[in-house]
Amino acid sequence: MIGPFVHLGRLARAAFVLGREGAFDLVDDRELPPGPALLVRALRKLKRGGTAEQGRLAKAFERLGPSWIKLGQFLATRRDVVGDDIARDLSALQDRLPPFPDEVARRQIVDAFDRPVEGLYEWFGPPVAAASIAQVHKARTGGMDVAVKILRPGVEGRFARDLRTFFFAAWMMERLDPMSQRLRPVDVVQTLARSVTIEMDLRMEAAAISEMAENTKNDPDFRVPSVDWSRSGKRIMTIEWIDGAHIGDRATLIAQGHDLKRLGRVVIQSFLRHALHHGFFHADMHPGNLFIDPQGRLVAVDFGITGRLGRRERRILAQILWGFIRRDYYATAKAHFEAGYVPPHHRIEDFAQALRAIGEPLRDKRASEISMARLLQQLMEVTELFDMRTRPELIMLQKSMVIIEGVARDLDPELDMWTTAEPVVGDYIRNELGPRRRIENALEGLQALMELAEQVPDAMKRLESFVESIDDTVNNGMKLHPKSATEFGHEIARYARSGRIALWILVIVAAGIAVGASIF
């Protein structure tokens, strides 16, 4: 029972820090049950004077440390869970931390490759960027400048500890508030844990860069850095150093003679091409991760966060976007039902009506005023009305679209999102839903049917054995060893006690926080 006390202690500390920063001002206690509403009001009393009104939640997460920064960044993409105000506040989070010492970085390299730094690099410089999981050094090898990404020492253990606390909080949320189960808080933390686990294995990031390079090898407007596999491993990654202008530096781009309107189109079309045609996309394409090289190509770096869409999800996404482009709301609604996003007890016509309420207000707006990212967000806002469960792959896509659209509009404020997207979406529709693809799908279905037919004899034998075992159970009853029955009963009792104790602990901690609030 030590675990729950430890987790509750960590959560109580987090609540104190959040209260001191005034973060609970963002929570509408009128929508909460009486107990949590009272707790929120008590925590508001912790707010210290002079606290800034903007970015207060982001500031609190930065004070809580690297794991909370990652959690905050992730929640900023989940407006369906935290709401618009909190998501907007968390979007100000800066994943910038002081670098760890140069000698520690060098020791990490020696431990990873069992070779001195001088034997791997001709020159190894100080850190040029540092975040919660890793930092980057500039170095030189083989006469070429490279970027060396190094994990922070002990980062895996710290994240593992904090993730256990996040899981505990999500589990308690589902236990205490059944209404929260629709938002799947445990699944949300699971998605975060999976993302962070992948991000802390730099071999996975290197593989993502390699896969994107293969997908875009014939793309004249987009590329990624090359990976130096001989100097890359789980905790160290070496890639080509990119010399280019940051995409957010308009003055430099103009001075270098780049066409900003063209670059805006390249950003949107590249992302959509990656998502639709390849089903694999960079999910963190903020300006700091995007460069324009001297040839005018878009270069993406930092592939720690990527997204994937299966073939089925890509087809549905294209149909949804195409339906809105053509204002065919029934087709868009039908695509949602075919994907299983909307439960079958609802009517397609009713859902089409809700989509029309989203799409029709766009008709009187200029193209530059229409946001595709906002459209996807509004689609998610109808989830509760139509009992739609959260789709993690679409959440990642929507978050990425918000970032990409912002980058493109900074380059070209008059960018027509729909005209820009139409060639990519239309090409995908023609290729994937045209006659040729239908024939290929039919052939694939026939092949799957033949493979299934080959498995029928074995399946029949297993079914026969299963029926015989059922007959034996009906005739002779189920036998359970007395020891097994005793252990089963003890296990049930233990879980029942744990559940009651955990609930009482939560009440005690809440009361303690409330008392602390009255003191402040």
Notes on the structure:
- The protein has three domains: 1-95 and 480-520, no CATH class; 96-241, no CATH class; 244-433, no CATH class.
- It contains 21 helices and ten strands.
- Helix 3 packs antiparallel against helix 4 (66-75), helix 13 runs antiparallel to helix 18 (392-411) and helix 17 packs antiparallel against helix 18 (392-411).
- The protein is an alpha+beta fold and 520 residues long.
- It has helices at 2-20, 34-44, 56-64, 66-75, 79-82, 84-90, 102-113, 117-120, 155-176, 185-199, 202-215, 250-255, 260-278, 311-326, 329-339, 348-359, 372-381, 392-411, 417-433, 435-476, 482-519; strands at residues 123-130, 134-141, 144-151, 222-223, 236-240, 245-246, 280-282, 290-292, 298-300, 306-308.
- Residues 495-520 have low confidence and may be disordered.
- The strands form three sheets. It has a four-stranded antiparallel sheet with strand order 1-2-3-5.
- Belongs to the protein kinase superfamily. ADCK protein kinase family.
- GO terms for molecular function: ATP binding; monooxygenase activity; protein kinase activity.
- Residues 122-450 form the Protein kinase domain.
- The chain crosses the membrane at residues 501-519.
- Pathway: Cofactor biosynthesis; ubiquinone biosynthesis [regulation].
